[in-house]
Amino acid sequence: MTLSVTVNHRQAHAWNGPLGRHWAAQDRRFDAMLGEADEALFAAAAIGPGDRVLDIGCGAGATTRTAARLAAPGHAVGVDISAPLVDRARERTAAERVPGATFELGDVQAYPFRPGGFDVAISRGGVMFFEDHVTAFANVARALRERGRLVFVCPRRPGPDAEEGAALGLFARRLAKGTRSGGGDPDPGDRAAHTAMASLSEPYRIHAALHRSFAHIAVNPVDVHTHWGDSPADAVDFLLSRAPERSVPAATRAALESTLRPYATSRGVRTRAGVWLVTAVRRDDAGV
Ligand SMILES: C[S@@+](CC[C@H](N)C(=O)[O-])C[C@H]1O[C@@H](n2cnc3c(N)ncnc32)[C@H](O)[C@@H]1O
Q1: Which residue has a Cα nearest atom 10 of ligand 1?
Q2: Taking Cα atoms as reference points, which of 52, 44, 45 lies closest to residue 72?
Q3: What is the 3-class SS of 226-272, one letter each residue?
Q4: How far apart are CA 192 and CA 83, in angstroms?
Q5: Ligand 1 mean position to 156 CA, how many Å?
Q6: What's the gap in Å between 95 CA and the centre of ligand 1?
Q7: Cβ neighbours around 36 below 10 Å, total
Q8: Whose CA is nearest to atom 2 of ligand 1?
Q9: Given the CA of residue 123, which atom of ligand 1 is nearest to it?
Q10: 3 state SS for 184-239
Q11: Cβ–ligand 1 contact at 58 (below 6 Å)
């Protein structure tokens, strides 16, 4: 076990509290929700046999397991700041028998990686939460070998035709109107995580975060769909699962379902969303 230091205390608090426990309990839902980005992520990462892969902010480890399968006989290590998610990642990896995937609890910004120990670092939405992105990506660069690759996806600022913000905004308003508590103030941890989610939503911010440690930085838009559930009722169950103690009257639930009905397709309830696909190569002078 490696001793690791936490510097991102607000995120550690959030992802080890109700937010992280919710992600761990609903990990398959979140995998379904985010899974459409995997194709672009793994095509760009081009992981091959023998590669050593670091998965940054790996959550319950779905992308770590995919990376390990592609890298065999190499391996993939997922690092995450959330104990409930690392526990879940280990459970699922044992159940799915993926011996090449292992997990470490730690803050990637300060984790004492062995220098040059990885060929490629990937992340599906686990890189937005650093208080100091420049330091965090310098630490990732040190963990990579010379010319090691970095590939990640992160949310793009929604455009005027974004479905997701509109759908979730209307959902939240109907929920607040239709429940006695009105939902209350969001947990401060949730607020910190929600704000951080957009920290790399503009390309200039991505370049500013990476340029000291990475070269050949490319930032390309990829359009994906977010999967909320198999039907509007199922999607409402998922969206309400974050606050299971809240009592939602039947009429409100019906109103919530109607919010999502416009997005129901034969493949489930899906809203259009956009991510950035970011690729970069470790600079020769990084990590020295
Ligand atoms: C949006 S979730 C994505 C999880 C996972 N990559 C996936 O696709 O399911 C963000 C993840 O980043 C982790 N995280 C946030 N800050 C971190 C940090 N400083 N170091 C390591 N992990 C972090 C959270 O615990 C969470 O698991």
Answers
A1: 126
A2: 52
A3: EEEECCHHHHHHHHHCCCCCCCCCHHHHHHHHHHHHHHEECCEEEEE
A4: 18
A5: 17
A6: 22
A7: 18
A8: 126
A9: 6
A10: CCCCHHHHHHHHHHCCCCCHHHHHHHHCCCEEEEEEEEEEEEEEEECCHHHHHHHH
A11: yes
Is the CB of 124 inside a 6 Å radius of any atom of ligand 1? yes
Mean pLDDT of 13-36: 95
Q: pLDDT at residue 1 above 60?
A: no
Lowest mean pLDDT among 177-186, 190-199, 251-260: 177-186
Quick check: 84 pLDDT over 90? yes
Contact 94, 36 (CB under 8 A): no
Instruction: Put residue 50 in one of left, alpha, beta given phi > 0 → left and psi -120 to 50 → alpha.
Output: left
Determine how β-strand 52-56 pairs with β-strand 118-124. parallel
Q: What is the pTM of this model?
A: 0.94
For a pLDDT cut of 90, what percent of the chain falls above it?
80
Distance from Cα 184 to the centre of ligand 1, integer Å: 25
Distance of CA 109 to the CA centre of its chain: 16
Q: What is the pLDDT of residue 182?
A: 47
CA distance 67 to 72: 9
* Residues listed for the chain: 288
Q: What is the pLDDT of residues 86-121, one digit of tens each?
A: 999 999 999 999 999 999 999 999 999 999 999 999
Element of type H or E holding 12 = helix 9-15
- Asked whether the predicted pLDDT for residue 183 surpasses 60, the reply is no
pLDDT at 147 over 50: yes
**What does the alpha-carbon distance between residue 20 and residue 80 come to, in Å, rounded to a whole number?**
11
Q: Give per-residue pLDDT as tens, 218-244.
A: 999 999 999 999 999 999 999 999 888
Give percent above pLDDT 70 in the chain: 96
